[in-house]
Amino acid sequence: MVSRLLKRHHQRHIFSESAPQPNTPAAHGEPHQPLPTVNRRPVAGMFEVQLSRATQAALDVVDPRFRFDADVFLTLLLRHCAMVGLPLSSHVAYVLATVEHETAFGGPRHTQSVSLIEDHSPLREDKTTGRWHCTNHITGQRQSADTAEQLLIDYWNAAYGDRIELGNRPGSNDGYVYRGRGFTPLVGRAQYARVTEALAAHDFSYELDSQVWGGDPTRPIDLVARPDHLRRSSALAARVAVLALRDGLLTGVRLDRYLTPNTADFINARRCVRGTDQAVLVASIARRYHEALTSWSAVLAAIEGRPA
């Protein structure tokens, strides 16, 4: 089922996947301290075999509603988990659980959804006046504008524009520009800047628009300047998802605070993403993946070229 996905995407850690379009219409924690990423270059044959097995095991327990999009992205996500060396299956399980819960593996939730970008409430046109209107799902307020494009700008500025704690500048379009993108959505200028800084410390590049970004000072990875790359490059989105949770880039809380070799506190692990909102639900999803990913140690062994 997943064999078509098992191509090698690493050449000097350059990844070229771009996010496909839909197929249908601050919490408490310790300060961020990035962990080192080993430059792992898998031994081809056995790594791909073990990655395929892990992918199939995870795919078998994906919520059926999200199976199609998971089939597209699971191998990519697990590959990045392995490339940065997530040491525990519980860590991998929580990454997958967060991606399933937050973005449904990039799948559309309604007819106006766009893959890997935060959903807004449906926009509707008044056929009599020609104006567009909606109810903002963040503020609960009714909004309207002359065009759908302007309504979207107003929508996200109303939702996030004045959120100083997100690093957004009042009176700017930061709410719109830095709305949620990615598998584990970044929201706010501060998160885009923090992740940009973290990526600079890693040997990672991605290909987009026939150019390689990262590793070249003339084309650095800069999500503040190019936030939409996080939507358009699924490779970038996957790497960000893994690093954001591992290194506490979203809230300052890292996965290894609650997920250790001896404990798997999936409820409090939610603090890596957004406090305790929906913590019990996401924990139940994580347990499902954790029970399935019994072969994760074999994936890591293969990537290091040692016996499982």
Which key phrases capture this entry?
globular; 308 residues; single chain; disordered N terminus; mainly alpha; 3-stranded antiparallel beta sheet; 2 domains
How is the topology of this model organized?
Blueprint (H helix, E strand, L loop, with lengths): L13 E2 L28 H16 L7 H17 L5 H15 L20 E2 L6 E4 L6 E4 L2 H13 L13 H4 L11 H12 L4 E4 L2 E3 L15 H4 L1 H13 L32 H14 L3 H8 L5
Parallel strand pairs: 1-5
Antiparallel strand pairs: 2-3, 3-4, 5-6
Describe, in plain words, how this protein is organized in 3D:
The chain is mainly alpha-helical and 308 residues long. It has 10 helices and 6 strands. The protein has 2 domains: 3-108 and 211-303, no CATH class; 124-175, no CATH class. The chain has helices at residues 44-59, 67-83, 89-103, 148-160, 174-177, 189-200, 229-232, 234-246, 279-292, 296-303, and strands at residues 14-15, 124-125, 132-135, 142-145, 205-208, 211-213. The two termini are 24 Å apart. Mean pLDDT is 88; it is low at 1-14 and 16-32.
Task: Put the structure in a nutshell.
The chain is mainly alpha-helical and 308 residues long. The chain contains 10 helices and 6 strands, in the order βαααβββαααββαααα. It folds into 2 domains: 3-108 and 211-303, no CATH class; 124-175, no CATH class.
What global shape is seen?
A: globular
| SSE arrangement, N to C | EHHHEEEHHHEEHHHH
The N- and C-terminal alpha carbons lie at a distance of: 24 Å
Largest sheet properties: 3 strands, mixed
Radius of gyration: 19 Å
Count of beta strands:
6
Mean pLDDT: 88
Structural class: mainly alpha
Count of spatially separate domains: 2
